[in-house]
Amino acid sequence: MKKIYLTSLIIIAGLAFYACNSSNENTSKVSESLVGDWKVQWITYPDQSAPSNDSINYTMNGEMNILGNGKITINAFGYKNCIFGTDTLIHTLNWEVPSDTILNLTNDGDKYGIPYTIIELAENKVKLQLVEDVYLFLTK
User: Fold this and answer.
1) Which of 88, 89, 123, 135 has a CA-to-CA distance to 78 between 20 and 30 Å?
2) Main-chain dihedrals φ then ψ at residue 45, nearest 5 degrees
3) Which one, of 91, 88, 111, 113, lies nearest residue 102 by Cα?
4) Nearest Cα residue to 124 out of 103, 140, 101, 111
5) What angle do CA 82, 97, 90 make, to 5 degrees?
6) Which superkingdom does the taxonomy of this entry point to (predicted)?
7) Is the dihedral of CA 91, 95, 99, 101 positive or negative?
8) Please, are residues 126 and 133 in contact by the beta-carbon 8 Å criterion?
9) Residue ranges of domains in the chain
10) Under CATH, to which class is 2-139 assigned?
């Protein structure tokens, strides 16, 4: 009886180790794919129930430099009537991939950060979703 119990425990521990190791390999591959210089376009879509305003622009261009050391620098090029802002912003944050579908950005000392859902990941193209209606399209 003890032998069956011990064998079962070893099998369960082995499966748990394999699952954790497989997940770490996936997040490592995602992280490696994200490193580099990217052109970025932020896009949002107007709420269908809101009144139409043709003077508002729903896109913004920018750049991201994602480094292998866990740092990311974001340049966002705002302009007049841009829904995201009128100023050009440059900000350096920390980044991590806690799962193969999440890119999390944090300031130093921030425990929670800003999670981006990874919708699509290819060699030269990434699609991220920030909130329900804000998307980021990254291209190399």
Assistant:
1) 123
2) -120, 140
3) 113
4) 140
5) 35
6) Bacteria
7) positive
8) no
9) 2-139
10) mainly beta
